[in-house]
Design goal:
With 258 residues, this protein is α/β, with parallel strands linked by helices. The protein contains five helices and eleven strands. Helices cover 26% and strands 22% of the residues.
Length: 258
């Protein structure tokens, strides 16, 4: 009997450990929770869980008469559907060391009557898109604004997983890195981002090299390779035409492609 008890001890300890670990996770069958997540098509792919935490946006490519833009984030209700619409609540969080966007000046406040009605999970649904309306303020020509926001508990929802309770938009009216110029694209095709390199690529090809363009060429390996080789050769020609003075970026680093 003593031997059996000693044999079971590790299993008992493991069960207690598992219970303790489970206590770190939310149980969603007793309340309704809300949290951000990836696009619906990627909801079951773990590697995409935090893919859209931060989005980069710029008015740079827009005509002068365009005064606002909308960025969308996916959000999910957990715990089942409801027979009634369920509004959720968003609040801004200031980020230290950045220029934080000002409600009413750089974006429509989440409580603004123009947008407030959009922040709701409709009856019978568990997913919606969260629209964040950015405003083209004059200061965006010379500064980059950060808007971080979170969901907070209200009468309809408790907050879900803490790693997914926030999202962030970084925006300006200047040439800036598109979201599609990600780490993988930088490593294999375009190299590290810089404004000088970006403008050089635009001038070389006559294309915008904005989000839509980069997403498009990334769908075709041969096209992406063609553009990579085109700008790479243009850089070689530029440097040959300026011996001893290669193209450098805004930080004094020599521009290069992989």
């Amino acid at each position: 009997m003593k031997k059996i008890f000693l044999t079971l001890l590790p299993l008992i300890a493991l069960l207690f450990t598992a219970c303790d670990q489970d206590s770190n996770y939310l149980i969603y069958n007793d309340n309704a929770y809300i949290q951000f997540g990836p696009a619906e098509s990627r909801i079951y792919t773990t590697s995409y869980n935090l893919s859209d935490t931060t989005k980069l946006q710029t008015f740079y490519y827009e005509e002068a008469q365009v005064t606002q833009d909308t960025v969308f984030f996916d959000i999910y209700a957990i715990g089942g559907t409801s027979t009634v619409d369920r509004p959720f609540t968003l609040v801004q969080e200031n980020v230290a060391g950045t220029e934080n966007a000002v409600a009413g000046e750089d974006y429509f406040a989440f409580t603004d009557a123009k947008v407030k009605g959009n922040y709701v999970i409709k009856a019978g649904e568990v997913h919606t898109l969260v629209p964040v309306v950015l405003l083209r303020s004059a200061k965006l020509k010379t500064s980059t604004q950060t808007l971080k926001f979170s969901v907070v508990e209200n009468d309809n929802f408790k907050v879900g997983e803490l790693t997914n309770n926030w999202r962030k938009v970084i925006f300006s009216d200047r040439l800036s890195r598109p979201n599609a110029w990600d780490a993988n694209t930088a490593k294999y095709y375009l190299g590290d981002y810089s404004v000088v390199k970006h403008r050089f690529m635009i001038d070389t090809t006559g294309d915008k090299w904005n989000e839509e363009f980069i997403v498009y060429i990334k769908t075709d390996f041969s096209m992406l390779t063609f553009y990579k080789n085109t700008v790479k050769m243009a850089l070689v020609n530029y440097n040959n035409a300026h011996p001893g003075n290669p193209l450098k970026d805004e930080n004094g680093v020599v521009v290069a492609f992989p």
